[in-house]
Design goal:
By secondary structure, this protein is of the alpha+beta class. The chain has three helices and twelve strands.
């Protein structure tokens, strides 16, 4: 088992994903539910990979791989056109700015560059109910080995015809309190 990471950067904006690698499919690690424990308890001895959660993460990974490859077409292939992105950026002075870039603006930020991107997720959580899903993951994002920013990514996805697509992505972005 190897941890991998990819990230997308749009000027000063980043989304990230890190998952367990199994062959070529990147899968999240999910705990099996345990009926006699509180809902927030984790039983590390009963790890399994949920196929729906894996499919959700595969879609998120496809979007992220497109950004890392600077391939706007690959990014667009992972999203639903009627969706949107929301960025909640907190400045060092605590000032908060909320932006709602269109997908065109979001994808326009995918441009070539020499930087090495390294997101580090802290326990992605994926929840699926039929044909809707969400993924929530706190992250720290490094550029060229240095902490650049951190926050939380929240992806909303829908499944149509057996294919998951990202409908919305909302993420926080801050440069303080990330740990160095």
């Amino acid at each position: 088992m190897r941890r991998i990471a990819t990230c997308l950067v749009f000027g000063t904006v980043c989304l990230s994903a890190q998952v367990q690698q199994t062959g070529r499919l990147f899968l999240p690690e999910v705990s099996a539910p345990v009926a006699d424990r509180p809902a927030d308890a984790t039983d590390h001895s009963r790890r399994h990979v949920d196929p729906d959660a894996a499919a959700v993460m595969a879609t998120i990974n496809a979007l992220l791989a497109g950004v890392v490859a600077h391939d706007g077409g690959q990014v667009l292939a992972a999203i639903r056109p009627e969706g949107k992105a929301t960025v909640v950026a907190q400045g060092p002075d605590g000032t908060v700015v909320i932006r709602h870039p269109s997908w065109a603006e979001f994808v326009a930020g995918v441009r070539p560059g020499p930087e090495k991107f390294e997101p580090r997720l802290k326990g992605p959580i994926v929840r699926v109910d039929g044909d809707i899903a969400m993924a929530w993951t706190p992250y720290t994002f490094l550029i060229d080995g240095k902490v650049h920013h951190c926050g939380v990514n929240h992806f909303d996805l829908t499944r149509e015809g057996g294919t998951w697509k990202i409908l919305n992505v909302t993420y926080s972005y801050r440069t303080v309190g990330c740990g160095r």
